[in-house]
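Hi everyone, sorry if this is the wrong subforum. Our group has a chain we'd like a structural model of before ordering constructs, and none of us has done structure prediction before. Sequence below.
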Amino acid sequence: MTAESSNPRFGRTSNPLDLSRVAGGSSGGEGALVGAGGSAFGVGSDILGSIRIPAAFCGVVGFKPHSGAVDQRGTWPTVTGNTKSWLALGPLTRSVRDAELVYNVIADRPTAGPDGVTGRLVVPRNFPLTMREQSIARALAAATKALLQSGYREDSQDFSETRSLYLQIPKLIQDDFYDDWIRLLSNDEHGRFSPLKELLAQVMGKPTIDAGLLRWTLLGPLLKPRSATRVAEIAGQFADARTRFHAMLGTDSVMVLPTLGLLAPKHGQMNKQSLRPGINGLFTAHTMGNYLDLPTIAIPAWKFQDRLTGLPPSISVLGAPGAEAQLFAAAKRIEAAIN
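Answer:
Right subforum, don't worry. Here is the predicted structure as tokens:
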């Protein structure tokens, strides 16, 4: 449940582009292996960016389908609560073509449609977005230009609602997962897991769990909604938003946004930024793909490598369920323009 892929038992996953930096998470192992050329493709699970964050940081392609596209039987975690529609399984690959190939094997319904499709390019207004590096903004501009020049029509839409939705994310995550985390971290020998005792152990240099997961468990009692009525109210807000945004996007449009507003940080820095309370524009784009249940593909922009670090930014294409052919067609055009 964190974006660093560090583990006190099994060690830390390093970024193949710079070993001093995080590979992303939680599917950081897949991102690192594909990015290093150690495997042809990987498959990950994504509930808050766990396919696209490693893809963005490791310079590969990551595709998160909509939640019902790939059968989740036999995979972990099993989500049955209100964030079930946030979770999806998808591939990490070296190219958009490969992502589509793998998706068409594992999906219940393969994509079908011509590569020459054009339509609307939805441009979000009033959307909280921060881009820390100039290379990210330049890559975004090039990706947008590529679609407009290929015949897409710009369509500005109001996304101010995403501010309040973003603030509700931790509440539903905690409601679905907190009790399971405590149960899974408890055992007969040591009894019920105590986040406060673990905090003391970490201060003394004797951690038993990942520091990022500890942050989640410490925040749980503060963020978990107090009543089933409040949970239902928050879940209803997300459900209503999904219905509206799916209808607005339809099957003829895509959005183009930076996957993340930052490049891969040094080890130990990602959780400090991603688990910070409040609206964080560095992470608003990729989380929207989860809580709105949008198929989303992240593409590295190697033509726009950061001058200081050499790391590539990542650009994402988002669309509504049912628009996968449109999404892959747009992603191929963007890939040709930014790689």
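For your construct planning: The chain is about 40% helix and 15% strand. The longest helix spans residues 161-185.
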